Amino acid sequence: MPEPNGTSQPRPTAMPPTSDPEPTMPPTYARKRSRRKLAIRIVKALIAIAVIVGLGFTVRSAAQQWHSERERVVTQIEQIDSRLAASSTADAPTAGERTLLAQQRQALRHSIPTWSNIGWIPIGIAALLYGAGTLISGMVLRAWLSVLGYQPPLALVLASQTLGHVGKYVPGKAMVVVLRAGVLGRSSVPLMPATIGVFLETFMMMAVGATVAGVVISTLPVPPWMILAAAGGAILASIPTLPPVLQIVTTRLMDRQSSLGSHAWLACAKGWAWSIVSWIMIGGSFAMIVTAIPTSAPPESAARLLAIATASISLAMVIGFASLLPGGAGVRELVLTTILGLVTGPTHALLAAILARLVFIVVECVLAMMAWCYLHSRFAPKPLSPAPAVPPA
Q1: Alpha helix locations (H) across 85-153?
Q2: What is the pLDDT of residues 121-130, one digit of tens each?
Q3: How far apart are CA 314 and CA 307, in angstroms?
């Protein structure tokens, strides 16, 4: 519109809307966040290194034991050959002794394991059974987490269970809890309930394993300390899982009143049922490994072999876990050869114990890798919370 003096003023142009500057992150907070990320990466790397080193030492020890036992059998055969080849009248064995030595030599030759005479089909079945037993034990953990008020996805619970198994090869067994609780945290299960659930699952598996072993070995001529160990392990491991005790523990550790009610007793019943099935699977796995190793001894009935194999492997794992040694090194072999040796002979029992350790490690590593891939595809780590916005000056 023209002004009174006849001139026209230019219209004011609209200014483009200005956007507020992006909020900035305080330098101190940025440094803390960066350090936290670095610390988490370092801790994860140290955990991975500890697990790998522990597995390496365990595999190396088992391989050395296997080689030593094989060489011992070969040495015995050479000694028998030397006696059979004795030419002097004083050292020459009699006809009866020659027959006995020949039988011993034949039995020893049949007991030497080679790549060609090991039963690979039974070993494959053993691997599947052990894997199933490992996964079934995860149902015990899930039942206890449910009692504590958390329902993480079943696949996540099984992943935490399988990853935790590789942690037992690190001295002290604490890595088992660290790995499992860390995985459960990806489903917003707090550290304390996750830790309590892991301990409850472990105690229940140990209690059931010791009970199963005690029932079977009470009918066998084993050393008294084994029966006492089975009975003591069953009682001591059962105490923390009793609902009255559990209610006191959870109330104190979780800083809130715990009312578990009948849910805890139901979890106990489910835990015992799942644990029994798990131990039968693991015992069946060990029985298949026993049959995979060549021997000249007459075969045992399937039912008797399953019962003794389940008792020996369950008690060996319970005592090995209580020893706090990586993977129960040495302790498991002692228990297995003592119990299983009653029906298979000490040499065959020791070879079965060593082969079982190797097969179990392979299965645990395969399951752990599958769990790791699942976690990284479905439960990626949550990013750290963003820094608080700082208004511009």
Answers
A1: 95-110, 120-147
A2: 999 999 999 9
A3: 11
Whether this model's pTM surpasses 0.85: no
CA dihedral 357, 359, 362, 364 (to 10 degrees): -70
- Helix locations, the chain, DSSP H: 27-84, 95-110, 120-147, 154-166, 174-184, 191-217, 224-238, 243-253, 262-292, 302-322, 331-344, 346-378
350 close to 113: Cβ distance less than 8 angstroms: no
| Residue type for position 47 | I
pLDDT per residue over 210-226, tens digit each? 999 999 998 888 888 88
- What is the sign, positive or negative, of the torsion defined by CA atoms of 377, 179, 353, 205? negative
Q: Which of 97-106, 127-136, 170-179, 183-192 has the lowest mean pLDDT?
A: 97-106
Q: What is the DSSP letter of 186?
A: G
Q: 161-189 burial string, b = 16+ CB within 10 Å, else e?
A: bbbbbbbbbbeebebbbbbbbbbbbbbeb
Are the beta carbons of 125 and 295 closer than 8 angstroms?
no
- Report the pLDDT value the prediction gives residue 226, as an integer from 0 to 100: 86
Lowest average pLDDT, out of 13-22, 151-160, 307-316, goes to 13-22
Q: Are 181 and 191 in contact (CB under 8 A)?
A: yes
Per-domain boundaries in the chain? 119-378
Torsion region of 345: left, alpha or beta (phi above 0 gives left; psi -120 to 50 gives alpha): left
pLDDT of res. 175:
84
